[in-house]
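Before the break, one more example. Copy the sequence into your notebook; we will annotate it together after we see the structure.
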Amino acid sequence: MGNSYAGQLKTTRFEEVLHNSIEASLRSNSLVPRPIFSQLYLEAERHLSALEGGSRVDHEEEEEEGEGGLDPNCPPNPYQMLPPPEGCCTTDGFCQAGKDLRLASISNEPIDVPAGFLLVGAKSPSLPDHLLVCAVDKRFLPDDSGHNALLGFSGNCVGCGKKGFCYFTEFSNHINLKLTTQPKKQKHLKYYLVRSAQGALTKGPLICWKGSEFRGRQTPAGSCSGSLFPPLDSSGPLAASSSEPTPGANPSVPMGAQQAGPASDHPSLTAAATGPAVFNGKDSPKHQQLVKSKLSATPRPSAPGILTNSGPPKKRHKGWSPESPSAADGSYSQGGGNRAKYESASMSYMPQVGLVGPASVTFPIVASGEPVSVPDNLLKICKAKPVIFKGHGNFPYLCGNLNDVVVSPLLYTCYQNAQSISRAYEQYGASTIQPISEETQLLLTVYYLVQLAADQVPMMEDLEQIFLRSWRESHLTEIRQYQQAPPQPFPPAPSAVAPVTSAQLPWLAGLAASSCNDSVHIIECTYSLAEGLSEMFRLLIEGKLAKTNYVVIICACRNAAIDSCIAVTGKYQARILSESLLTPAEYQKEVNYELVTGKVDSLGAFFSTLCPEGDIDILLDKFHQENQGHISSSLTASSVTKSASLDVGGAPTCTSYTLEPHHIRPFQLAVAQKLLSHVCSIADSSTQNLDLGSFEKVDFLICIPPSEVTYQQTLFHVWHSGVLLELGLEKEHMTKQRVEQYVLKLDAEAQTKFKSFLQNSFQNPHTLFVLIHDHAHWDLVSTVHNLYSQSDPSVGLVDRLLNCREVKEAPNIVTLHVTSFPYALQTQHTLISPYNEIHWPASYNNGADLYPENKKYFGLSEFIESTLSGHSLPLLRYDSSFEAMVTALGKRFPRLHSAVIRTFVLVQHYAAAMMAVSGLSQMKNYTSVETLEITQNLINSPKQCPCGHGLMVLLRVPCSPLAAVAYERLAHVRARLALEQHFEIILSNPSSGITVGKHFVKQLKMWKKIEDAEWRPQTYLELEGLPCILIFSGMDPHGESLPRSLRYCDLRLINSSCLVRTALEQELGLAAYFVSSQIPLEKGVCGEALESDTEKLSSTDSEDEELATEGSTSEKKSPVKRERPCSHDSTSSPLSSKASSKSAGSALCGEFSAQPGGPSQGEQARTSQPCSPSEEGRAPGDKQRLRASQGPAVVNRHSPGLAPQPDSGLRTSQKSVQVSVTSSSSQLSSSGSSSSSTVPAAGTLVLQASHCSMTKACQQPPVVFLPKLVYDMVTSTDSSGLPKAASLLPSHSVMWASSFRPLLSKTMTSTEQSLYYRQWTVPRPSHMDYGNRAEGRVDSFHPRRLLLSGPPQIGKTGAYLQFLSILSRMLIRLTEVDVYDEEEININLREESEWHYLQLSDPWPDLELFKTLPFDYIIHDPKYEDASLICSHHQAIKSEDRGTSRKPEDLYTRRQTARMRLSKYAAYNTYHHCEQCHQYMGFHPRYQLYESTLHAFAFSYSMLGEEIQLHFIIPKSKEHHFVFSQPGGQLESMRLPLVTDKSHEYIKSPTFTPTTGRHEHGLFNLYHAMDGASHLHVLVVKEYEMAIYKKYWPNHIMLVLPSIFNSAGVGAAHFLIKELSYHNLELERSRQEELGIKPQDIWPFIVISDDSCVMWNVVDIDCGGERSREFSWSERNVSLKYIMQHIEASPNITHYALIGMRKWSSKTGTGEVREPFSRCHVHDFIVLNVDLTQNVQYNQNRFLCDDVDFNLRVQSAGLLLCRFNRFSVMKKQIAVGGHRSFHITSKVSDNPMTIVPAQYICAPDSKHTFLAAPAQLLLEKFLQHHSHHFFPLSLKNHGHPVLLVDCYLNLGSQISVCYVSSRPHSLNISCSDFTFSGLLLYLCDSFVGASFLKKFHFLKGATLCVICQDRNSLRQTVVRLELEDEWQFRLRDEFQTANAKEDRPLFFLTGRHI
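Here is what the structure looks like once it is written out:
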């Protein structure tokens, strides 16, 4: 490929790739070129570099960068030099022939130079101080203008004389340049050499390779005219204005940047890069394209004009090196402050914003050479301070006028962070994945800058994302490979794609910058950046960079490494960036300085001349004098007469001003309950960090920022919530001073109050103190790092107080942080566990309204939504004419801070608007439409309400001194215009209260009906309805709530530092509002009501006028960008805004020319113009809200429009730019105007338009005005659809942990966002959480710390106050329990025997006396109210004596309970934790969970016919209760004490508690009930529940039933407990017999206790006298230990078979306790003698009434049952588990029908639905509810009961039964008197014989029911018992339970007595 390529290579992709491939193969001697087709078609996976914007960069080095030019996984490919020939010289400075070529050596020697050749000096990288002399053909060198050099090379060696070198590569080898990069003549041939006067050869002028920058090249025909890289020299000075953004365009979105990066990677950097922040841009389509194209390898150009591959074909040796004049090196100045400001950004895919901390460490700068001098008059000439960002490598020192430049290390940090590989890939062996190269970084930076529009500001976060994407995409293959396969021992070979080299870099950068109209300028330097900086300063001074916004300086000669820096020279960008580098403190200081030194006077002077009369103040004075007499009567007449008439005659009052009672909203209640459940979960966890059971009451302290208004507001909330009364902290008549005890303002006095709080908490360990930290994102400064502690004691106070050791360690203090912006508390070092975060719930979930409310919250997302097309007028707006004015003045006054300029401009606009509204119409050209609209509505609103209610305008001025200036100026103008009675101007300062004029205080008192003469408004909420401008100062809002009458939120002055997420959302949160949701919220215009944390009052009038849709919402589509919309809001004003304005700029002309048929400006607009929602130029009135006309208006509910204006006076025309006739006419039906001449069509409603602005306030949120850059930031979205603002750095006090982080996603919930920030942010050293991880604890979360977050003004204060109330109620509730409180049943049926137990005061029963007592068969336990009555002798029981039957489902719900306070002797469930029982429960935090072992225990039981295998789970701590075999450790027996033991240290009887389904709620913690005494407690559980019980009760012994009993009832558990205990008794007897102990001395008793026994009581009797029946008694709570030891000490106790006690009831009468002992049924808590009852078994099949059945069996066996009537047990109502855990369902799973008891049995062999339930349960349930089907004669026939043999079954309360035992020698009642109405034989055994049954008499027609296990035994039983002799059977009288055959149904046979 020769040196002269005539013609062009076609720019097709194929030829280009082919060309690359050939060249690569020519150059390379080691790497195999990639196949062409793989380059063409297979590269998408490989690489998406910014370079490949779909098009190829056209230059000869492209193939080196190959398809992956930016592919950092390929190591830099060093230039491969041919090995020098054998034996030649390789010394630097000599040629290969050994001849010296150094200029210093041969300058005086004669040199032969052929004709046409010139001597030039070449630079060798290895000899920086020497030039090598060469002879080069001048045709291959450029001319003076940098042009016309031939491609290629021709030269001779002057040392050895060798001639004819045709390639510079070959020549460079010969002269030993020893290059590591591709040799280029432009790079190494630097100077012409000339002979001095003395004849010596010296260095001459620089060789001008394309000017001092790029060599010009011809572009291909037709692609564009002129040079692609216009030489800089030719672009002369440009008009200064040309580089300024045009007002209507896209003013920029500045953005803060961050010094991110893992702190661990670069400790010094982290500290040092705390300097400034910078950068970002808005979504221009161009910008998005770049991003997309840069990151995807699409084979077509997508960024037009940027990376075009035009130009001549690539040559191997073409290319030129930009040259720069040498310049002195320079020093580095840490200028511009040390903290980043966060401007706004809106690039389509970059969420992050940068952050910076205090720059406590200076940057490690390596400087070389002379310092660079900053010119003296730089700022004056440039109109802005250039901001220089240090990039790669060394940065020179700067000296001279350092005040006029700002130097920042942010970009350096950004580059460093991008070099650190994402931690996510380290586990995959990320060492093999190369970081992105420096060259690529710089090139991507240039591409990024080229994309930025003239009004955009660069943002570091955007760059980070670009780097991240580039790195990820270029390593897609490796990353996937690592994700799929285990790391390999050897890294894969790097792919054969060469990266960008430092030699190519300047050229590539120049190529990229060539298309941007010189907004990015590239300077290449030879030695160091110093020469480039000097060159830049020179060009700035000469005005040659007027159109340039960014200068990129590259020095790429130093050992393959590059030095670089980027200077921001655009006036707009430089101003925003330099100001963004100031900390808030420095910003305030700067503004103060400008105000104090009078620098602003020039600005004031400039404004005063902006007036048609010359001087505004002169005009004002003139106006004042002219109108002094009559203005008060004309302008203020209405309001004065109104107030007068109201005072005197009570004129009509305003119905819109209503006060709502304080109530809690459903959302607040839901959040309070969530808070409560989190507190409970802390208490329930096994960490024992909170023992709720030990607290009796709640106390609290609310800490708030030092804002007087917030303080008063919080006092108001606390007072009116009634929480102090509810918590019992105050009495009814509390004073304000008392309430102040509970709210702490974090100011200098806070410490004293806080100390007393701590002391209080220490002295009251049984009070739970809740420390509420409201507005918790404020002041997170660490006490340790607080540099301001001396100057400002309140800084760092939160850390000093809330994080002090006392608070952290106090077990009774719970800290609740409450904030709308929790991000700074969600870092890697946070103290708050993610499980302790409570987020405000979303109102809708899957489309369902979770908590219906009558109000809709209007927050940030709703405001943003209102800006989208399709909605009515947006609620978020910006003021373009204001922005244009600010920009223009910024150039005129470059030394003033823009905050000062913005404030002065805005105040001027307000002043002019006031003057215009007051009649000085010439002034309306000196304000903006927006400000005029605000002012008109402010001044006119009071006239439209009978009471004079008006609207509030919030003017946010963060800087207090500027706020004072604004206040003075506006107050002065108001006074001169005589408007003092019309509206108030209030200057608010966080530290001081509100000052309101007397006139307005009087009005407020009248509206609020306040009599108190001393009353003054103390919160903004109390300014409801007051027409006022509230100047809201202070760097941050502190949670102040604003009233509903807020209509305009003017945030045009918010500081650029607000651009971190917290600050931005905090400012916008001021406008958050609740709107009345009864109003149809169509078109997105929702109401306008800003709600405070508690309820704001809202109007109930729904007949206010409709929200008319005015003007266009589609601002995004509008070419004019809503330049000057006009106001319809104040229609009675004599001057609606005129459409021409000097400050609005020329953009308006287009707007008006688009209005061909508009009314003339002088036209009297009595009816409004139709305004279609699709209009482009939108009339922004106050979202068109029919601002009250003075007369009635006709309003169509369906066609909202503007009311007619009878008194509107002269108005200038409302402009309504109709974009198309169609669009306007099609909208007329829905939103056209209704005028007096056009009464709307059908369906209209004529009503009186509401006049008061308060009415609208309830339905319309305020309109918010933002600075343009913030507006762009908020309304643009990133690639996931998330608003840009959400992706900013979350807070000033944190930084990103890594630049390699994923984006936030739109679909993330609050919880997921929290986890994102917890992973990706770290606190700065100044943050109070910074040292948290250093404490050395693994778990760094504080256990008693919670975080409540929710949107601003949504009601968090109300929610946490409600939480305090329900927490208090719960603590009281925790100390209380619902116990059954039912009086005993069937008292009147008690056996009236003459026998009484006469000894009333006997502590124990007398055995002989007791034996004489008869057994009371009647059941008295109220839980058996529905059970069959047991008859014991013939008695006539009237049917009404029995209670009416209840439905089965009512049985549980209707049982009466009483709420009892838990005593210190109560049994507890798993939720109880206290210090004393930690060890008992096995949850001691210092130990592991108690270890336990599983032991099998088998015994045989003849009745079951098999061996029973049981398992014990025995914790190590309980093994002493058992005996194990030695060796082997087999469980042998459970130790039993002796009857003769008299110790009071332990309870002798082992306690067994059968339980199911109550692992959490069962009362198994008997520690307190036993009063700490040693006892043996065994839980009896089913096999499938073993694991869950073991988890909750790790220190309890478990007896696990065999799996066959998994579906059994309580009878099986009782049966096995008793059998096991008897078996154990025998084992113990034989074991202890060997020790010489008699068998009868072994203790034979066990306790079987229900799992719901909670407390035990004893009755104390006071007898009147000896043997007297008169006595008094009282009941008290005692421990179970007391009761058990009392019972166990009974004389002759072993003669009793069963001992029990009464069930407690509040209705217990003297009769029940008169007898100390009864012989009757015992239930719930029984002491069982397993020895005596050896032959009496529980029925293991039973589910219900098994205790009654067992009692009857024991009695019939002749054994004694004794009930201690003076003892009672309380049973807790537990809603889960127990017998209710058995649900009877169909076996057919898809049958949803409910099963009723009648379906529990069926005919055998029928097709009845089988049920999934045990047969025995179905039988018992059926008999309980439907036994009258079997025993019709028995129903309510209590004289003729049903005979039950050997088994008691409940046949329902309507049927009486008689129980007899068939066992020989059993005690039965005499049945000779009875004639039975039925006979029930249940599984009868061989003891029941035919002769036994013949003893009983039955009624004729009495029924028989025989129940057997199967049909066969049924028939055998009938035969064996000779039943057919007396009973008649029919085939159809056979039944079975509804079980499948495999479930072993029970079979019934019924018959009738003959």
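The radius of gyration is 47 Å. DSSP finds 51 helices and 58 strands in the chain. Try to locate both features in your own notes.
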